[in-house]
Design a protein that fits this description.
This protein is an alpha+beta fold. 25% of the residues lie in helices and 35% in strands. A hairpin with a 5-residue loop joins strand 2 and strand 3. The termini are far apart.
């Protein structure tokens, strides 16, 4: 019985994984920059189900990032 419960928990975690790893515009740890000059551009590349996603941000005066463009490249 415990093997069944463990297997069910494993399957449930895989079912929830796509929502957890869905493409996000900005990682929370990178939402403020301290050394980048204001007005400079930052590009963050990621992949989502084989699709490359390029997120392009502009650094604001307070160091926050503002999404200015998102480009998807189909494989």
């Amino acid at each position: 019985m415990s093997k069944f419960i463990a297997a069910a928990a494993l399957v449930a975690s895989f079912a929830a994984a796509p929502a957890v790893f869905a493409a996000q515009p900005v990682a929370q740890s990178a939402d403020h920059l301290t050394k980048a000059p204001a007005g400079s551009m930052v590009q963050i590349e990621s992949r989502d189900n084989g699709t490359q996603i390029d997120n392009i941000y502009r650094v604001s005066a307070d160091g926050s990032l503002k999404l200015v463009d998102q480009v998807r490249h189909e494989d």
